[in-house]
Every structure is written in structure tokens, then in C-alpha cells.
Write a structure and sequence with these properties.
- By secondary structure, this protein is an alpha/beta fold.
- It is 52% helix and 13% strand.
- The strands form three sheets. A four-stranded mixed beta sheet has the order 3-4-1-5. The chain has a four-stranded mixed beta sheet with strand order 2-6-8-7. A two-stranded antiparallel sheet has the order 9-10.
Length: 361
């Protein structure tokens, strides 16, 4: 399961490494929406929420679908600018069609949502489909999608105003602290690119990012098989401190390929018993269970949603979920008549360290 970025026709020098204030703000917003994904920033997130004005906190919750499970493509710039204001100006230049489509993909909670044949802004059937998908995700998603389709300009202005207020509330202070780390990482990547070529630079980004043997394709390990091609604008790699452990990729048609990668070091984990480590490794040995975990990494899902996503029967999904729960890799939470499963992120993230500690003890 990979994203393949075709660079065969890419002019030399069109693979760039650059820092983006907007992309880092988006990573921070994701931390605020999903602090369980980022235990090393749990204290930071709690402090930010405690200090937010109630009005801004409410606006963040009403638009969190733009950055919670996945990030809207317009929030990860292909052409990073020095300031957040400049990048928001670039977002303002995107036409309503591209903006709304990108926003609906994240709001509707499915990377299978496409509106390439008909626009939900002008086509009634496409509009109803978008609203149905949003409604299935919850009342907040439905309300946001309705506002977006009814008055894109008003929603866009409100989202920008929210992001600008985030700058004053917490981003500017945090950005000053991470900018040095990003600059250090960028110097390393650019030097590797200049001296040793793209393969060496990609190897330093992540073990999940590689150059194909023929040099014509960048391969990114992602949840589904996708493909895109880099055109004249090239491919942009954006480092992130708050983004760990996520590797975010922009690959939708009409958008320039962008990869946001983490640079922060993982925090140490507490060792667990060898029996627990063995149980978890056995649970991960099955390819279906590994696929389920990669889907659940995007957010909680029900058994029915997982069965639909992977085209498997609900009983088969249930059996695999039971194995993962016994290993302590999942949590379950009942919401009405549905049970939503989510990753036990701290324990899953610590598995490699736990294995090494168990071997060395």
C-alpha cells in the first residue's frame, strides 16, 4: 500500500525542502483535535485549550474536520511562504471549486469521496451525496457541509479568521520555538540533496519514503495504493515538529504533490512484559489486522465501516478486532447503538522500544 509520485518528467532542482507556517499550524490543530495521537504534546494541548477564548474554542471545534482525521489539501502548501499571512493569501486565491472539494473530502471522512464528474456547488445530486456522507459522520459535520455549500465565501472567510486568531492565541509563540528545529532539519536535507542526490535526501526524511530503483518515482508508504505525477511545480517536502508521528501527503488530482514529514524525536516508553510484547507481535502478524490498524489510525470506526472500507464481512472484521483488543492495541467506545474502535496509540507506538527492552532485560 503506497503512494507513488512520478518524477520521471521532473526538471532537476524541482524537489524542494521548505518550512511552512500554515502546515505547522495545521499540525498543531491536529494535535489539539487528537491529543491521543501525540502524547508528547498532551501537556501543551491541555494548556492551549485552557487558555483559549470560548468563542475561538467553539470555532475550532466546528471546523476541526479540516485537520482532525486528515488535513485539507489547501492547508499543506506546495509553495511555502515565510509568513502565515502570505500562505493564507495564497489559499484565498484558490477557486471555490477546489477549496470546497478539498474541504468536503475531510468533512465527509472518506478518501473515497470524489466530485470530479459533477460539482456539489452546482449539481443537486452531487450536493445531496456530499450532505448524506457528512450526515453519516455526525451533526457537526453535516452542519459544516451545509454552510460550506450554501455560502463558500462566508465559510472561507470564517476559517481564515479562525486561523489568524490561532496565530495570536498560541501559534506565534510555538512557531518561534520550533522554527530553529525546522531550519536545522532543512539545512541537513538540502545539503544531502545537493551533495548526494534525491535518494539520500529521501532516506533522511523517513524510512517510509524511498526512491524507486529506476529513479523515476518517489514511493511513500500510505494506507491505500495511490499514484500522482509531479509536474513543473515539482514535489515539496515540509518538515514538522508537531506532526510526529504522521506522514502527510497531498496527492489529489489538481494539487501539486507535497509530503509533510516529522522531525521531532519520539519520547521514550516504559517497558512491558515479554508476554505482552509477544501477544502484540502475533496480533500484528496478520495482513488484514495490519490494514485495519492503518485505517483506524485515521480515526475511530465501527465494524460496519471497516467492513465496507475493506470489502470484508462484518463477522470477519469482528474476529480480527477481537484479537487486536486482546493484545491491548485497540480501545472500544459505545456511542448509542454503535461501538467505535480506536487505536491504543501510546502502546502501539511503544512496541519497538518494548521489544528491544524485553530482549535486553
Amino acid at each position: 500500500m503506497t503512494l507513488r509520485i512520478d518524477i520521471s518528467a521532473l526538471p532537476s532542482g524541482r524537489v524542494q525542502f521548505a518550512a511552512s507556517p500554515l502546515a505547522e499550524l495545521t499540525a498543531m490543530l491536529h494535535v489539539l483535535a487528537e491529543p491521543g495521537h501525540h502524547p508528547q504534546f498532551a501537556g501543551w494541548a491541555a494548556d492551549v485549550w485552557a487558555g483559549l477564548r470560548p468563542e475561538l474554542a467553539e470555532r475550532l471545534r466546528e471546523a476541526e474536520f479540516l485537520w482532525r482525521s486528515s488535513q485539507a489539501d489547501f492547508l499543506i502548501p506546495a509553495r511555502p511562504r515565510p509568513t502565515l499571512a502570505e500562505e493564507l493569501d495564497d489559499v484565498d486565491r484558490i477557486d471555490d471549486e477546489r477549496y470546497v472539494t478539498a474541504a468536503l473530502v475531510t468533512t465527509c471522512g472518506s478518501n473515497r469521496v470524489h466530485f470530479s464528474r459533477a460539482s456539489p456547488l452546482t449539481d443537486t445530486t452531487a450536493r445531496e451525496r456530499a450532505l448524506d456522507l457528512a450526515q453519516a459522520r455526525g451533526t457537526l459535520q453535516e452542519a459544516f457541509a451545509e454552510r460550506l455549500l450554501a455560502d463558500p465565501a462566508a465559510v472561507r472567510a470564517r476559517v481564515r479568521h479562525t486561523l489568524e486568531e490561532c496565530a495570536e492565541a498560541f501559534f506565534d509563540g510555538a512557531w518561534a520555538g520550533v522554527a530553529v528545529q525546522l531550519a536545522t532539519d532543512l539545512r541537513l536535507k538540502r545539503e544531502l540533496l545537493r551533495r548526494h542526490g534525491i535518494g539520500a535526501a529521501l532516506a533522511s526524511v523517513s524510512g517510509a519514503v524511498t526512491l524507486a530503483p529506476d529513479g523515476d518515482c518517489i514511493i511513500v508508504d500510505k494506507v491505500q495504493d495511490k499514484a500522482t505525477a509531479a509536474r513543473d511545480a515539482g514535489v515539496t517536502f515540509i518538515p514538522s515538529v508537531f506532526g510526529r508521528p504522521h506522514l502527510v501527503a497531498v496527492h489529489a488530482p489538481g494539487w501539486h504533490p507535497v509530503v509533510q514529514y516529522p522531525v521531532a524525536e519520539p519520547s521514550p516508553a516504559q517497558p512491558v512484559s515479554l508476554e505482552t510484547v509477544t501477544l502484540r507481535l502475533e496480533a500484528l502478524a496478520h495482513p488484514v489486522r495490519l490494514r485495519l490498524l492503518r485505517t483506524l489510525a485515521r480515526g475511530p470506526h465501527t465494524t460496519a465501516e471497516l467492513a465496507h472500507f475493506w470489502e470484508l464481512s462484518p463477522p470477519e472484521i469482528s474476529r480480527h478486532l477481537a484479537v487486536l483488543r486482546r493484545a491491548g492495541l485497540l480501545t472500544a467506545r459505545r456511542q448509542g447503538r454503535y461501538v467505535r474502535y480506536a487505536l491504543n496509540l501510546p502502546d502501539l507506538a511503544a512496541l519497538g522500544t518494548d521489544l528491544l527492552a524485553a530482549v535486553l532485560r
